[in-house]
Automatic annotation (TrEMBL):
Regions of compositional bias (Polar residues) in chain numbering: 375-394
Residue stretches of biased makeup (Low complexity): 360-374
Membrane-spanning ranges: 76-96, 108-130, 185-207, 236-261, 273-292, 304-330
Annotated keywords: Cell membrane, Disulfide bond, G-protein coupled receptor, Membrane, Phosphoprotein, Receptor, Transducer, Transmembrane, Transmembrane helix
Protein name listed in UniProt: C3a anaphylatoxin chemotactic receptor-like
Subcellular location: Cell membrane
One Gene Ontology molecular-function label: complement receptor activity
Gene3D superfamilies: Rhodopsin 7-helix transmembrane proteins (1.20.1070.10)
Keyword Transmembrane helix: yes
Entry superkingdom: Eukaryota
Amino acid sequence: MQPNNPVKEDQQKRGNVILATSDRFFSSNFFRSPSLQRPVCIMNASSTALWLPNASLPSSLETSSDINRFRNTLKIVFYTVVFLLGAFGNGVVIWITARQVSRTVSCVWFFNLALADFLFSVSRIAPLVAMKEGWVFGSFACKVNGFIKYLNMFCSEFLLAAISMDRAACIAYPLWARKHRNIRLVWLAAIGAWLTAIVTSIPFYLYRKVDTKNNQTKCLVMLKGEKPGVQVTISILRLICGFLASFTIIVICYGIILVVLRRRQTSLHSKSFKVIFVLVVTFFLCWLPYHITQLLKLAGAESTAFSFTALFAAFLAYLNSCVNPFLYFFMGMDFHTRLTLYNIIRALRRILLEENSSINQKSSSSNKGSFSTNEQAKSSEISPVNCGNSTPQT
């Protein structure tokens, strides 16, 4: 028979005392509370189970609620910025160009771009109110709100493509442009861009619905119950019509412009031409992340980090609707003058109404072999803004 180990016996006695005390403690009235009857099991680093009452830890619902509150706060801030800056800035551009749309070609383009952005900026009021009250505007307003969002994207894209083709025609075929290009033709092109944008935005009107869940009413794109290919078709439509097609046209047009100018050894000194180029670059920088995140979402990307990435990509796309007036201002403002309302309006008018730019010819002996002296003189007078034609030709 082995002798008893005093140390081991002492440890066993202490363990029995701890177990008895813990049994009395957990059987007390405090732990009989209904809200604390379900324990939470946590695994620590050494895989030891620790049993704690629910009250000692934040639940997953509370964590999700915090994320949603933070996301809604971001939406409120961005919607407010887009509404205030977009409505005011584009409203000023519309006010300046509306008086000249029957006289100058560039005003037709700037007016329609500003109108598309203005409609989108104003439409942000509804989702801004819905952040606090839920969607209270009904099913029709829900559909129209989603429709305007994509109408702005498609219309801006198509208008920029039309403007790029207009500029390419002025540079590559100046004599034809002088004879045939007029206000009426440009208005027809702008109306065609609007009609095409309306048609391509119809699917986003049809599938936008009001949904109520957990006592919250939201305006969402609802594709549940639809055929599996519907979501893929809509996503492809948005990518091709809203980005790739117009991007291809714009790249081709500016490629033609660069080739023609290099062949003629000429340079552009038109502020309006430079502004259009900046608008095109800005549009693609703002909308490219949005289309990328939409493709990733279609591929099944799901995580909290990705949801915030997609959110910021959408906000960047929204900012495109209010950034154009500030581009006009910075490119037309003389910063040696005081920053007054008069000088701001003057800077905008300098860009929006600029029609007398010209293509400066550089002397070159090789240029004489391609064009006659008379054709060179005519083409040098043709502006890349309006091809020397600010009033309708008869």
